[in-house]
Write a structure and sequence with these properties.
elongated; 322 residues; mainly alpha
Length: 322
């Protein structure tokens, strides 16, 4: 019985050790995001330090652009396409990290990784496959509790790492050839000049110079110097004038309507005086005039059709005789 109790005790102790080991691993995994700075991460606070990262996270996008241009020494971004491209890339990376609500160390690590990927194109002229392997190396250790060779982005969890990979695929890798072109070609310099003509003041007359209005030709003074007269303000009509104008318009409409009704009544009066025989004669005359032109046109078309048929028959006879 004593041996059985000892075995039970040993089994209980081993099971407790296993449970405690599992719980410690779980705690390590849960506290990994909170203990991002426990070990020295090769990507955290390397390009932008902690103070700069915190200040940038509190700024708007226009202020972020100005601050990053100063930090990264991109002073000619407004005139040089190369610096403008780099600044736009860095601002978009930082602002995306801010929208994802990454912590300060995570934001700094992501910015360092983005800078390294861009430098691989700019300085090392790295092929896209090699740069993808570089990104894969950066993400080594993501999702693992312990790893011997962390890549630098292991402070992110698996979900965040997937978002980062999708982001770099959309922004950098899909436009890889464009970045290669920008970093391998020299921007053409354009010299823009503007010639201005300035008229010198004429020598002064002794003992005093003439006034400006007398020193200019009359037409020039009238056209360019003289103050134009004020534009007269439109006169405001009184209510009585507006009412009178309205009544005049209504009276004109009424007179036009009466005139139209009178013309219609005269036409009806003329038609009422005609007998049925006279109306029939009028209709016959109009019909004859209308159909006369129509008959002439139809006869002309029939003659043309007849001539066409006859010419075809003659051709057939000639062919048959030959």
């Amino acid at each position: 019985m004593a041996d059985i109790d000892k075995r039970k005790g040993s089994l209980t102790q081993s099971s407790m050790k296993k449970r405690s080991g599992k719980s410690n691993k779980t705690k390590d995994k849960e506290n990994k995001a909170g203990d991002e700075t426990d070990r020295e991460n090769p990507y955290v606070f390397k390009v932008i330090d902690e103070t700069q990262t915190k200040n940038l996270l509190e700024q708007e996008v226009e202020e972020v652009e100005k601050s990053l241009a100063s930090i990264l020494q991109l002073e000619n971004h407004s005139t040089e396409l190369l610096e403008a491209t780099q600044l736009d890339y860095y601002v978009s990376v930082f602002w995306w990290a801010k929208e994802q609500q990454f912590s300060v160390p995570q934001t700094s690590a992501l910015f360092t990784a983005a800078n390294q990927l861009l430098l691989n194109i700019k300085e090392k002229h790295m092929h896209i496959l090699d740069n993808i392997r570089e990104l894969k190396t950066m993400m080594s250790g993501v999702g693992a509790v312990e790893t011997e060779t962390p890549g630098g982005l292991d402070i992110f969890d698996s979900t965040q790492a997937k978002k980062i990979a999708d982001y770099f695929h959309t922004t950098l890798l899909q436009h890889y050839k464009l970045y290669q072109f920008v970093f391998s070609h020299t921007q053409a310099e354009e010299i823009i000049g503007l010639d201005l003509t300035c008229e010198l003041v004429q020598p002064a007359d002794v003992p005093y110079p003439p006034p400006l209005t007398e020193g200019l030709p009359g037409d020039v003074w009238e056209k360019y110097v003289k103050t134009p007269p004020p534009t007269p303000l439109p006169t405001q009509e009184s209510e009585s004038e507006l009412q009178a104008r309205k009544e005049e318009a209504e009276e004109a409409k009424r007179q036009a309507r009466l005139k139209q009704e009178e013309e219609i009544a005269q036409q009806d009066l003329i038609l009422s005086k005609l007998t049925p025989e006279e109306i029939q004669q009028v209709v016959e005359l109009v019909t004859k005039d209308t159909f006369k032109n129509l008959n002439a046109e139809m006869a002309s078309r029939l003659r043309e059709r007849e001539n066409t048929i006859l010419s075809r028959i003659n051709k057939v006879h000639k062919v048959a005789s030959t």
